[in-house]
Structure prediction request, 284 residues.
Amino acid sequence: MRLSARIKCFKYLVYAYVILISICGGAQLVIGAFLLWTHKQYAPIVKNQFWEPFAVLIALGVVSQGLAYLGWTSASRKHRCYLGLFCAFLVFFIVILFLVSGWAVATKAHLIVPAELAIETSFSEFLAKDNTNDQTHIWNRLQRDFHCCGYNGIHDYKKNKQMGFPWSCYDPIDTKVFNTGCMHVFVRSIEMNMIRVAVVAVASALVQSLGIFCVIQLQMLLRRPTLMLPNGDHHSMRVKRTREQTPLSTATIGNPTPHSSTKPPIPLKPVVPRVDQPIMKSSH
Prediction:
């Protein structure tokens, strides 16, 4: 395959790879924004904690779009320096994705105790202010959306004989009271969101590492010097020195092959022997 055809082939492969990076970045943006929006609705219950992994996932999605633009520009201009910069940034970005995945898993493992304390404090304030009849209160919305009741269960309301179950603890279909405590349901929801962040980060890192070979190969092909032919084609100027440095054998000289780069020896012209003219002596 000619050099120009190989460059064109890998150029379109890099284009496809850049589109894949852009799709991964868009997925990170959408998923991160959805998780952050869902968490922010009930974030005051946990004192506005544990939102950082979602925001980082959104930021990584924006960075992915920037990398996609750099890769597309580098491939279209066939600029070796930009391609090398794109490859270096891409490797660094993939490492960051793996680190973010590990950070999300570590956050999931250590959020139980601070989350439980924050939820317990928020529920105590909810009971102290007697906001059970406020339909817009965050605890009523939490109990309604997560199908839970109280901190540990319905027994938290039974302790106070003057306070009945709030409307949000009843199932609107069969009017039964939810038995599950909101602390367990809400903490499990935050843990699942952290796992989603880790999975999205790892999946994006694996997908975005598939085309690094194409970028490196295109950069290596652009390093070869090319020769512009009259018909507009590009050909490599790489010289094959192996055939030029091969010593000529007798068989090669006598029977040159069609693919041999050496020319047959030029036959020598016959040499006519020199004959001296006889010297005539004059008699006196």
User: Anything to note?
Assistant: The CA atoms of residues 104 and 197 lie 7 Å apart. The first strand starts at residue 226 and ends at 228.
